[in-house]
Design brief:
elongated; mainly beta; 0% helix; single chain; five-stranded antiparallel sheet
């Protein structure tokens, strides 16, 4: 499980929506982002690209202070292994990186030997 996120933060998730095939990646980064809507594609303001996101159940309540919902986004930065196989993360992975095959609604993605670059990925072959 990622040390950066807890299951309790994901209790209102209903679905994971992939914009790209997660089987193509050894890892994706996951983050909790604040958004004004429970569903639909959230805004993305990072370098790189968003490859997926979660949608929330209908009765999910926004944060009372901000009026915003917390939803996970899955993304890759330009220097990540899927974009630059011989680069900075040829081995190892960033702290928020998890194996996309372990991502489900209400469940924090997990680090695996594949996500950490400890095994040769079929996606990179």
């Amino acid at each position: 499980m990622s040390s950066l996120m807890h299951q309790s933060q994901l209790v209102h998730e209903a679905a994971v929506v992939w914009l790209e095939d997660p089987e193509c990646f050894d890892y994706v980064r996951q983050a909790l982002d604040k958004t004004g809507r429970r569903t639909g594609r959230p805004q993305y303001a990072r370098d790189g690209r968003m490859v997926g996101y979660t949608e929330l159940v209908r009765d999910a309540e926004p944060n009372p202070d901000s009026g915003l919902y917390q939803r996970r986004t899955f993304f890759l930065l330009p220097h990540d292994r899927p974009n630059d196989p011989e680069g900075l993360y040829k081995a190892g992975a960033p702290g928020e990186a998890v194996d996309p095959r372990t991502i489900e609604p209400k469940r924090v993605g997990e680090k695996t030997p594949r996500s950490q670059g400890e095994t040769k990925s079929e996606a990179l072959s």
